[in-house]
Amino acid sequence: MITRFLTDVRVKFNPFSPRAKPARLFLSLIPPNARADGMKVETKMLPRTSTEPATLDVKFKDGKELKLELDKMRIPEVMEEVDRHSRILARKEELTGN
């Protein structure tokens, strides 16, 4: 997963719910030095009895925001959505020579 273009990651999930697996896996894919490199990672744990859906909000360096409902998605789909915009930003960066 391409994480160098992410500036802000917000995840909200019930850790005891089986539908929260994509949220947990996404958090595990973020590199350990991401916060030191300037990424803001915010997690909100919902109570065990909560029926609120798991959500992921991602903000990219160009200002685009991506909001996903994770209880309806699998982790490959989540990674594909995030990587799609990251690849566009990588291509733009490569063409401008930065």
TrEMBL record:
Keywords attached to this Swiss-Prot or TrEMBL record, sorted alphabetically, are:
Mitochondrion, Ribonucleoprotein, Ribosomal protein
Localization: Mitochondrion
Query: The organism sits in which domain of life?
Result: Eukaryota
- Could you list the residue ranges that cross the membrane? none
This protein's major location comes to mitochondrion
| Pfam families per record | MRP_L53
GO cellular component terms, A-Z: mitochondrial large ribosomal subunit
- Record flagged with keyword Cell membrane: no
The keyword Zinc appears for this protein = no
Span of the secretion signal?
A: none
Which GO MF terms are attached to this record?
structural constituent of ribosome
Instruction: Family membership, please give it.
Output: Belongs to the mitochondrion-specific ribosomal protein mL53 family.
Instruction: Quote the protein name from its UniProt record.
Output: Large ribosomal subunit protein mL53
**What organism is this sequence from?**
Didymosphaeria variabile
What gene, per UniProt, encodes this protein? MRPL44
